[in-house]
Design goal:
single chain; two-stranded antiparallel ribbon; 5 helices; 6% strand
């Protein structure tokens, strides 16, 4: 076991750490669960559906349709991206994985831009604030899902 030290920028006392054994590394992995991209997309879909139904019941059909289209402007490109980067042929080596990531990111951006540009033709009438809010809220779900396990570890959630 190798011990190292480093200075902490918040205090003058040095930090001590050591190289993890295989068992310690496994315990660390188990204590910090990973997040599946499909879980994120599932929650984005759920938020999209709930928001659409809520706006349809409480507001106008135009606002609900604009929200739904905005949510899908975020969700559908994310699904295409996730499908592209999780295919088996994209994980052969680091170069292929990196190139695949950037290719599918470009496809995601192009699809999102095309959907935004097509919005006035697809939805008539269109409520731009509703569309942008739907896109924004569904996009922000990614950050909430990524922060959730760490919030549970830190004790911020009591669920």
């Amino acid at each position: 076991m190798t011990k190292h030290s480093a200075s902490n920028s918040y205090s003058d006392s040095p930090l001590q750490w050591h190289q993890l054994s295989a068992q310690e590394a496994e315990l660390l992995r188990q204590s910090q669960p990973g997040i599946s991209i499909w879980q994120v997309l599932g929650l984005q879909f759920l938020i999209s559906l709930c928001g659409t139904l809520l706006l349809w019941a409480a507001a106008s059909n135009v606002l609900a349709a604009s929200w739904a289209y905005g949510a899908m402007t975020c969700l559908l490109p994310n699904v295409v991206f996730a499908r592209g980067v999780t295919r088996r042929w994209t994980a052969h080596d680091a170069l292929t994985s990196t190139a695949s990531f950037f290719l599918w990111e470009l496809v995601k951006w192009a699809l999102a831009l095309a959907m935004m540009l097509a919005a006035p033709r697809v939805l008539n009438p269109l409520n731009w604030p509703g569309l942008l809010l739907g896109c924004f809220v569904v996009f922000k779900v990614q950050w909430v899902v990524m922060a959730w396990p760490y919030a549970k570890i830190q004790g911020f959630t009591k669920l």
